[in-house]
Design a protein that fits this description.
The chain has 273 residues and is an alpha/beta fold. It contains eleven helices and eight strands.
């Protein structure tokens, strides 16, 4: 039993004529009649009561019409689902980022990609992301490289006063001192005056800073994308500290030729942060 046979049978039952089915499919009436006869022989039942210039479904034909219609619908739906799965697999794009700062940039870059793209987004430590890229578990990742934070506070308190008054916190998805170390490297001798600690979520970091319970460090150019009036956070810069800049890098395996990677790369090349 072939799909084509079922289609011709259903059309003939609906049109009530071998001739009309033949005209619809650009076939001869004899060819249509022969295909239906072959179908009847295969299932061992007469589907049409053939009379002169007229055909009618038999009782078996009426039952078979219901089942044939259901079967064709199932086949079409299954074909569509398989095509969708295949298409989604082709358009699956796996990306990663290290901290909320890269997450902001990644979100903006992904918004420029086709809306049909399916994303798997991973938040992980830098070493973890680099390994996943090398092992081709993810297509690419955005990481912060030597993130030395710009600092200048136009306040009466000195940087040392702030560091003495409040605990310094930061967030990363995994246990890591990377952000703490690079922040300390940007503030010189002040690095000896405090110990930073990691918190379990970005929301927790924002909550503690917004309530005046702690301070944290943020890349200056990203504040405009991160700050909201509901955070109740004053984003200040440290005075008297060497100015430095964060660098964000898109990493991917040299064998990965995903065109979406090039689109993200173009986004970073055309935007300054």
């Amino acid at each position: 039993m072939e799909e084509r046979q079922l289609i011709l049978f259903v059309e003939t039952a609906q049109l009530g004529s071998f001739q009309k089915t033949a005209e619809l499919n650009l076939m001869s009436q004899r060819a249509v009649s022969k295909r239906i006869s072959t179908l009847e022989a295969e299932i061992g039942a007469t589907l049409f009561d053939r009379q002169k210039n007229k055909i009618n479904l038999t009782a078996a034909g009426k039952h078979f019409l219901t089942r044939a219609t259901e079967l064709l619908n199932t086949m079409r739906m299954t074909t569509y689902e398989v095509q969708q799965i295949t298409q989604q697999a082709k358009e699956q794009f796996n990306v990663g980022y290290f901290s909320p700062f890269e997450g902001v940039l990644l979100r903006m870059a992904l918004l420029d990609l086709p809306t049909t793209t399916n994303f798997m987004i991973e938040e992980a430590g830098i070493e973890h992301l680099i390994s996943d890229v090398l092992l081709k578990k993810i297509d690419c990742a955005v990481i912060i490289d030597n993130p030395l934070f710009n600092a200048k506070i136009d306040q009466t308190d000195s940087p040392a006063d702030y560091l003495a008054k409040f605990p310094v916190i930061y967030y990363s998805s995994e246990e890591s001192t990377y952000l703490e170390e690079v922040f300390k490297s940007s503030i010189g001798q002040l690095a000896d005056t405090f110990n930073a600690r990691r918190v379990n979520s970005y929301e927790q970091m924002q909550l503690l800073v917004g309530m005046g319970k702690a301070i944290s460090f943020y890349p200056t150019e990203l504040i405009k994308y991160m700050a909201t009036p509901y955070d109740h956070i004053a984003y200040l810069s440290l005075d008297g500290v060497t100015t430095a800049h964060s660098e964000f890098k898109l990493i991917y395996h040299h064998d990965n030729h995903q065109p979406l990677i090039k689109q993200i790369q173009r986004y970073f090349d055309t935007h300054q942060f």
